Amino acid sequence: MNPPILSIEDLNVSFKTSKGIVRANEGISLEIREGEILGLIGETGCGKTTLGKAILRLLSGKAKLEGKIVYRDTDLLTLPEKEMRCFRGKEIGIMLQNPSACLNPVLSAGRQIAEIYRYHEGMGKKEAEKKAGEMLELVGISSFRGCEYPHQFSGGMLQRVMVAIGLALRPGLLIADEPTKGLDTDTKLQIVELIAGLVRKENSSMLLITHDLELAGRLADRIAVMYAGEIIEIGKAAEIISNPKHPYTLDLLHSLPGKGFRTVPGQPPSLVSPPSGCRYHPRCSFRLEACSQVHPELLGFESERLTRCFLSEMGRIKETAAQPSLNSQPSLNSQPSLNSQSALKCAEEETWHC
Ligand SMILES: Nc1ncnc2c1ncn2[C@@H]1O[C@H](COP(=O)(O)OP(=O)(O)O)[C@@H](O)[C@H]1O
Ligand code: SF4
Ligand SMILES: [Mg+2]
User: Fold this and answer.
1) Ligand 3 centroid to 179 CA: how many Å?
2) Are 230 and 48 spatial neighbours (Cβ–Cβ below 8 Å)?
3) Which residue out of 11, 17, 22, 264 has the highest number of ligand 1 atoms within 8 Å of its CB and is therefore the one to mutate?
4) What's the CA gap between 171 and 193, in Å, rounded?
5) How far is residue 129's CA from residue 226's CA, in Å, rounded to a whole number?
6) Which residues on neighbouring strands pair with residue 23, listed in sequence order?
7) What is the best residue among 285, 287, 312, 329 to mutate for testing ligand 2's pocket, by most ligand atoms within 8 Å of CB?
8) Range of the domain at 293
9) Whose CA is nearest to atom 6 of ligand 2?
10) Among the bound ligands, the one closest to the CA of 20
11) Which residue's C-alpha comes closest to atom 8 of ligand 2?
């Protein structure tokens, strides 16, 4: 197993708003290893972008960050802002969500890439423009188009420009936030294969933020599933897809076109006042009585696999109850089958009485 390039330890990120304190990330601990692609998935509003931006300290002044974010041997959260600037782009690159809003509309694409070389590497104008042209070619855009402005590019091409910006300084870690949002299926595949290909070729690491479980399953080595500000499941991508252990991951899987196309029941909760106990309990078809009262820990029973669910905790002995077949997903209103129910009850008693 490769050593971690980034370790996040017990990270809490909150925003003070007029509606109260939004706890966007709570108790996040995870590692991204050298040469690894980690997929971070979850519904809109669960805190994925906040986590990506927290790593580079790109959140607004209203954000409060606690915990540790260690890149190689440096704790990024304690670095003075001046030193932090050297890490942005050079050590950790980022492709922010929504390229048309991120790119400067009055600067040509080539100029926006060239500025990175001028600022970080002190290159002269000509040399920086040449390097920018090379980056454009690398991402499949003719260098002649470097003089064009963002509005002259299609969505897929703009995303390619973002890839060129994110990878311009050959960072050790790339954070790609929803790099395929709004793209058609063919373009989506081209873009993710381009990014993953370049990241793998450089032996860099990547945090791939997406709400698309299928995409993460195709590209990532491991997947972390996020729900209401918390990591609720993490493990090898193939295992998360083939054998989800958390009911939310299972519901996400069922929402895929080839796996039932059923939307996840209910609505994502407010992060100002999230549900008590397990945050997924109001939407969970397997909830036990204790689920609304006790908050489950993120625990591992197998190497590299962690789950935040009482069923998994008990599932070592009640495996079948925790994993209904993909074809028999219960709806929010339906109850688990009699057998499952008695197994769960049994498991519940075993755990809650000890
Ligand atoms: N700058 C901010 N100020 C206040 N609340 C914010 C800010 N940024 C994000 N949030 C809130 O944090 C929560 C998580 O948002 P976000 O990280 O963007 O989720 P995701 O990327 O998973 O869609 C949301 O409730 C969002 O409204
Ligand atoms: S802890 Fe309970 S409510 Fe939460 S996911 Fe597991 S079974 Fe469902
Ligand atoms: Mg987001």
Assistant:
1) 10
2) no
3) 22
4) 18
5) 40
6) 14
7) 287
8) 245-352
9) 309
10) 1
11) 287
Please tell me the pTM assigned to this model.
0.89
Give ligand 1 pocket residues (Cβ under 6 A). 15, 17, 22, 24, 42, 44-50, 60, 62, 271
Sign of the CA dihedral 139, 145, 146, 148? Answer: negative
Query: Is 169 inside any structural domain?
Result: no
pLDDT of the residue at 315: 59
Task: Find the 57 Cα to ligand 2 centroid distance in Å.
Answer: 33
CA distances from 47 to 24, 39, 210 (A): 5, 14, 11
Residue 163 falls inside a structural domain: no
DSSP characters over 67-80: EEEEETTEEGGGS-
First to last CA, the chain: 36
Which residue's alpha carbon is at the smallest distance from atom 1 of ligand 1?
A: 60
**Contact between residue 108 and residue 148 where contact means Cβ atoms under 8 Å apart:** yes
3-state helix, strand and coil shares in percent for the chain, rounded to the nearest 5: 40, 25, 35
Nearest ligand 1 atom to alpha carbon 97: 21
Q: Whole-angstrom Cα distance, residue 157 to residue 159?
A: 5
Predicted local confidence at residue 304, as pLDDT: 86
How many angstroms separate the CA atoms of 57 and 76, rounded?
A: 8
Q: Distance, CA 24 to ligand 1 centroid (Å)?
A: 6
The 10 Å Cβ neighbour count of residue 2 is: 13
Q: Is residue 327 part of a domain?
A: yes
If you average pLDDT over residues 241-248, what whole number do you get?
93
Total domain count, the chain? 1
Contact 286, 336 (CB under 8 A): yes
pLDDT of the residue at 226 = 98
- Under DSSP, the state recorded for 253 is H
Q: Does residue 265 carry a pLDDT above 70?
A: yes
Tell which residue, 314, 270, 317, 263, has the closest CA to residue 288: 314
pLDDT reading at 327 higher than 60 = no
| Cα 53 from Cα 70, distance rounded (Å) | 14
Tell me if 75 is assigned to some domain.
no
Residues 6+ apart with CB under 8 A from 193: none
Least confident of 27-31, 303-307, 347-351: 347-351
For ligand 1, atom 4, the nearest C-alpha belongs to 15
